[in-house]
Specification:
Keywords: Glycosyltransferase, Signal, Transferase. GO terms for molecular function: UDP-glycosyltransferase activity. It holds the Pfam family UDPGT. Helices cover 40% and strands 12% of the residues. The protein has 9 helices and 7 strands, in the order H-E-H-E-E-H-H-H-E-H-E-H-H-H-E-E. The chain has helices at 2-15, 32-47, 76-84, 99-117, 121-127, 149-154, 168-172, 196-228, 238-241; strands at 22-26, 51-56, 67-71, 136-140, 158-162, 245-250, 266-268. It has a 7-stranded parallel sheet with strand order 3-2-1-4-5-6-7, covered by helices on one side. Strand 4, helix 6 (149-154) and strand 5 (158-162) form a beta-alpha-beta unit. It is globular, with a radius of gyration of 19 Å.
C-alpha cells in the first residue's frame, strides 16, 4: 500500500501538483502480465482526474473516464510471421538459452516488434499529429526503446516502468550504480555471495549486455525510430533520448531480492498492481 501511494505521489509531482496533466502511456508488449503493472498506474492517474492516452495491444472492456485508447492491430503475430517466417518465441523455449543467447534473441525480437508497431495507423497518426501535446510520457522499459521518439515529439519527461525486477541498463537510465562484485545480473543465477569466478562471469555478462546494447541494439532502434518518426530530420539518437528519463519504476520489493544500491529516482513498486481481496461467496 505504501509503495502504491509513493508511486502516485512521484508521478503527480513529476507532472505538476497544482493541475491535472495530459499523460501518454506507451505499452506495446503483447503480454497480459506486463499490462497488469502498467495499467495499475495509468488507471489510477485517470481516476485522479488526469487525461490519459494509452497505446497498447489490449483494449478495455468498458469505457473509463479520462482514458483514451490507441489499440494496436490484433494481427501482430501474423505480421511478425510474414516478416521473419516464424512467430515470436514463447517463454518456455527461452529456458535453455544462456544469458548472451537470450539477449540477442530479445534484441532481435524487440527490433522486429518496433518495426511493426510504429507502422500502426493509430501510432502514425499520433506521430504526425499537429495539435496534440502531453505533459508526461510513461513507457514500458522492455526492448521497445524506439518509442522514446515520442519524448522528442512532445518534449515531455519520461517515466519508464519495468514489469519485473529490472536490469543493469535500466539503472543506467538514471545513473544508478550496479557493483558487479555483489549485485548479480538479472540474467544470471548467481546470489550476492559470488565466488571469484562467478564475479568474473557476472562482470563479463554485464559488460557484454551494456556494450551489445550500445553498439548492436541501439543502432537498430535508431534506424527504426528515424524511419517512422519522419516528421523531422533531426531526431536525436535513442541514447540521447534516454536521458529524458526522470524516473524508473520496477516491479520488485527489497524483501524478494538481494541488497543493492538504489538512487532516489529508481523506485521499487512491487505489488502495486495487486488489488484488495474480495470476499468469497457462500
Amino acid at each position: 500500500v505504501r509503495s502504491k501511494w509513493l508511486v502516485m505521489l512521484l508521478l503527480i509531482t513529476a507532472v505538476h501538483v497544482s493541475r491535472t496533466a495530459k499523460i501518454l502511456g506507451l505499452f506495446p508488449m503483447h503480454a497480459k502480465s506486463h499490462m497488469a503493472v502498467n495499467l495499475a498506474i495509468v488507471k489510477e492517474l485517470a481516476a485522479r482526474g488526469h487525461e490519459v492516452t494509452v497505446v497498447s495491444p489490449f483494449p478495455e472492456k468498458s469505457e473509463i473516464p479520462n482514458y483514451k485508447e490507441i489499440v494496436f492491430d490484433a494481427n501482430i503475430f501474423e505480421k511478425f510471421f510474414e516478416i521473419t517466417g516464424s512467430y515470436p518465441p514463447d517463454p518456455f523455449s527461452m529456458r535453455d538459452l544462456n544469458s548472451m543467447q537470450l539477449m540477442f534473441m530479445l534484441w532481435g525480437m524487440g527490433s522486429m516488434l518496433c518495426e511493426i508497431h510504429l507502422q500502426d495507423a493509430g501510432v502514425q497518426e499520433l506521430i504526425h499529429s499537429k495539435d496534440e501535446n502531453f505533459d508526461l510520457i510513461i513507457i514500458e522499459a522492455f526492448f521497445n526503446d524506439c518509442f522514446l521518439g515520442f519524448a522528442h515529439k512532445f518534449k515531455a519527461p519520461v517515466v519508464q516502468v519495468c514489469s519485473f525486477g529490472g536490469t543493469n541498463w535500466m539503472g543506467d537510465l538514471v545513473g544508478n550504480p550496479n557493483p558487479y562484485s555483489y549485485v548479480p545480473d538479472g540474467f544470471t543465477h548467481f546470489s550476492d555471495r559470488m565466488t571469484f569466478s562467478e564475479r568474473l562471469t557476472n562482470t563479463i555478462v554485464g559488460e557484454f549486455m551494456r556494450m551489445g546494447r550500445k553498439y548492436f541494439y541501439i543502432p537498430k532502434q535508431d534506424a527504426i525510430a528515424r524511419k517512422y518518426f519522419n516528421y523531422t530530420n533531426d531526431l536525436p539518437s535513442i541514447s540521447e533520448l534516454e536521458t529524458s528519463t526522470a524516473l524508473v519504476l520496477v516491479n520488485n520489493h527489497f524483501s524478494l531480492n538481494y541488497a543493492k544500491p538504489l538512487m532516489p529516482n529508481l523506485v521499487q513498486v512491487g505489488g502495486m498492481h495487486i488489488k484488495p481481496p474480495q470476499e468469497l461467496s457462500e
